[in-house]
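Q&A log
Question type: sequence-to-structure
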Amino acid sequence: MALTGAGISAESGIPTFRGTDGIWNKLKPEELADFGAFLRNPELVSEWYKHRRQVTRVAKPNGAHLALVEMATLFPIFAVITQNIDNLHERAGSETVIELHGNIERNYCLGCGKRYDGEEFDKNGSFKCNECGGLIRPDIVWFGEMLPTDQWNAAEAAASEADIMFVVGTSAVVYPAANLPMTVKRNSGKIVEINTEETPLSEFADVSIQGPASEVLSEIVNGIKEFRRDAKK
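Response status: OK
Response body:
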């Protein structure tokens, strides 16, 4: 299995929350990713997420996303747990994706629950439900909100059964996701960390590799294939 964070999408050009150009870098994340902020200024927050959706739609899955798709074909069971909301794992072709923080392409009405997904929502230009007039919010986890129960339970179950977890591009400081590698360790699994720098997880990892995720994961996939070819000889 793999646990992925923002670092895996950096090579796709997905900007960080604080690093976006324009007016957004003058505001605190809590002013844009908070339910109270949404209720106070739904138009501002809605425009911010419309902007972020446009950015992610232009971005393309990179070699790291594609390597995980290929890795899934090499094992009977392979799952991707992601902290990202950018939808790139799905677009790359990963079939089993557990989204801990939601998906920026999904939206729903707070009043009646009607879903507003994909590009049609942004083309409509409204953040109010055409059925009940309620506010439409992104289906993502904001500061102070609980993770989706079904996704978290699935992540814990996968981690408790994993033989190997590849931890890719995550700072390992965002909880409760940061607990998942320890769940793997407690159940005798191995941790392979891939990041451009050390993290709090590095000292606990069985293997810690520093480098671009696309290069490292591609090398691992090729190494597995080569090992299997040699084993058949």
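Response note: Residues 213-232 form the longest helix (20 residues).
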